[in-house]
Amino acid sequence: MKFERLQLRGLRCIGEASLDLADGFNVLVGANGAGKTSVLEAAFLLSHGRSFRSGSRDVLMQRGASGLSIFSTVRHADARVVRLGLGREGTRWEARVDGTDVLIGQLVRECAVVCFEPGSHALIAGSAEERRRFLDWGVFHVEQDFLSAWRRYQRALKQRNSLLRKESAVSEDLYGPWEQELARSGTQIDQWRRRYLDALLPYVREQASLFLGELGDVELRYRPGWPEGEDLAGTLAMQRARDQAKRHTTSGVHRADWSLSFAQAPQREHLSRGQEKLVALACLLAQARLDADHRGEWPIICLDDLASELDLAHQASVVESLLAAPAQVLITGTEMPKPLEQAPNRLFHVEQGRFTPLL
Ligand SMILES: Nc1ncnc2c1ncn2[C@@H]1O[C@H](COP(=O)(O)OP(=O)(O)OP(=O)(O)O)[C@@H](O)[C@H]1O
């Protein structure tokens, strides 16, 4: 899939801009603070409904502006075209698909964007929440019922936690239905995640051998969030007294995690900072490839400041693998990335939120 014309208004330093994007590599070059990353942020926002660099969408709105909007047509591999919009007027955020109001969460069904940026190494070095988010994004795209199971799980978790936090004693019977729901939806989510990681492993191996061949073979390990082999309903009932003391649910899929280990770097602490970034990139591109095989088209790939994140040889192998994909890529830099000097499909010079096409 690809963005055709990306139209932005009132986003950070961008007053108004319209970018006609090409099929392959779109390179945005400009000084620090010029507004390059803001374009990637807009692309990501249009697919995920959230920014990759700040928790709140509201900070994206240009200071003093009355509204923010992002529009784009997305052309799919089967030639289907959808028009996506996301914006805020006053205090309300709204999303549209082909002119019809939709929930912001529905945008992700229409358009997939994968983004590698300076914060991406958190996938390896950050909290388990980052890794669960990565995993669930992948599962969501292959398992139709994932979202509804996830919502049922979250609702039951909220209810059980609120029972655990009650000051006065509550009947133990009240826990039963919520624990059964947690076990039912949680066990389903657990199975989907394991299946997804099994499917992802060959893709991770392929990407990792390209970027990190010196580290040897890679394995993925999933930790479910409760003792392996135990039944979740039984664990929850058994741990109720402990959870009451802690005032929250300490076991379940919301506590799961996964990790990678390489033959030559069995623990994360064995990786250099640069290797952490490369592992994160290998995982993101592996997920993009799996997604491409599943839906028959590549997600849109955003690479923020690749030249300062990776050395030249690794930049070249990333570019080479994406040229072969083929994917639409949006890439930023203070200078033209060397491996793209010969052939960017489109080049924009960025200055103070304005975009000048040079190619
Ligand atoms: N809410 C806002 N309103 C107006 N301007 C903002 C707002 N938020 C951020 N900015 C400004 O917008 C610009 C954002 O730039 P962006 O991060 O896109 O730059 P960049 O070209 O990617 O820079 P770098 O190369 O330093 O990463 C910065 O100059 C920042 O000060």
From TrEMBL:
Key words, A-Z: ATP-binding, Cytoplasm, DNA damage, DNA repair, DNA replication, DNA-binding, Nucleotide-binding, SOS response
Locations listed in the record: Cytoplasm
Listed Pfam families: SMC_N
PROSITE patterns with a match to the protein in the record: RECF_1, RECF_2
Positions that bind ATP: 30-37
Start and end residues of each RecF/RecN/SMC N-terminal domain: 4-335
SUPFAM superfamilies, alphabetized: P-loop containing nucleoside triphosphate hydrolases
InterPro entries, A to Z: DNA-binding_RecF, DNA-binding_RecF_CS, P-loop_NTPase, RecF/RecN/SMC_N, RecF_2
NCBIfam families, per database record: recf
UniProt function note: The RecF protein is involved in DNA metabolism; it is required for DNA replication and normal SOS inducibility. RecF binds preferentially to single-stranded, linear DNA. It also seems to bind ATP.
Family in the record: Belongs to the RecF family.
Record PANTHER family: DNA REPLICATION AND REPAIR PROTEIN RECF (PTHR32182:SF0)
HAMAP family, per database record: RecF
Identification of the protein by name: DNA replication and repair protein RecF
Species annotation: Dyella flava
Upper lineage: Bacteria, Pseudomonadati, Pseudomonadota, Gammaproteobacteria, Lysobacterales
The encoding gene: recF
